[in-house]
């Protein structure tokens, strides 16, 4: 049974770059057979070679032109189009015979709200969970974290993804090559309780000091057995940590309470 890993996260968090670097590492270091699937119709250029590419069926540009839509409307249209093709997708390689692969990496649309927070994700994961135990990796951009509320809200977006999908979601903090000294990002990984503690002292920002500790406490309850890892999609040597987390999540999927 291959490990199917789905990369989700806000636009620009590094999903596509991670898929590239992780797949190269898996092939080179563990000699794995890795299949890549691209579900982003909006991407212009891919840094990896996908086994299936949604752009064989439609691209964001074509949809914008054909239906006279802006990019957001076109993303929504694309998500509806994927629903109508969902059975074809699962008849296509690599899904038609997943046993041929050690790992299948799935890259998702840049704008996560056009995929995760639309009906298409329910349809997609319903079928995916029938054929495997998918591991969902939620990518957080460390360089986007400037304030305590940035850290907590990005982390919580991963919790919401878990709530939407009903699957275990493992958070991964990316771009540590440019934001490695980001203390708030480090706290998410190493001392999340401290974020709640800090939030309580936000006396000048009333509502924030009430809401943020609550968010942290919910996030802590749902984090399962995993500790997020910090990686850089530009540094191959951080892929081992990512793989350890993905592997651990795969092995314990289903028996988390
Ligand atoms: P996606 O929208 O989530 O697929 O994000 P991309 O993989 O396309 O990355 C968005 C931008 O961030 C690109 O310019 C990448 O080169 C850059 N990027 C992604 N990961 C990293 C990283 O770990 N470090 C740095 N410095 N840049 C990164
Ligand atoms: Mg992408």
UniProtKB/TrEMBL annotation:
InterPro entries named among the record's database cross-references: AAA+_ATPase (IPR003593), Gpn (IPR004130), P-loop_NTPase (IPR027417)
Entry keyword Hydrolase: yes
Claim: Nucleotide-binding is one of the keywords in the record: yes
Gene Ontology molecular functions: GTP binding; GTPase activity
Segments forming domain AAA+ ATPase: 1-167
Key words of the record: GTP-binding, Hydrolase, Nucleotide-binding
Gene3D superfamilies: P-loop containing nucleotide triphosphate hydrolases (3.40.50.300)
Pfam families reported for this sequence: ATP_bind_1
Residues annotated as transmembrane: none
Similarity section: Belongs to the GPN-loop GTPase family.
PANTHER family given in the database record: GPN-LOOP GTPASE 1, XPA-BINDING PROTEIN 1-RELATED
Record's protein name: AAA+ ATPase domain-containing protein
Organism this protein belongs to: Staphylothermus marinus (strain ATCC 43588 / DSM 3639 / JCM 9404 / F1)
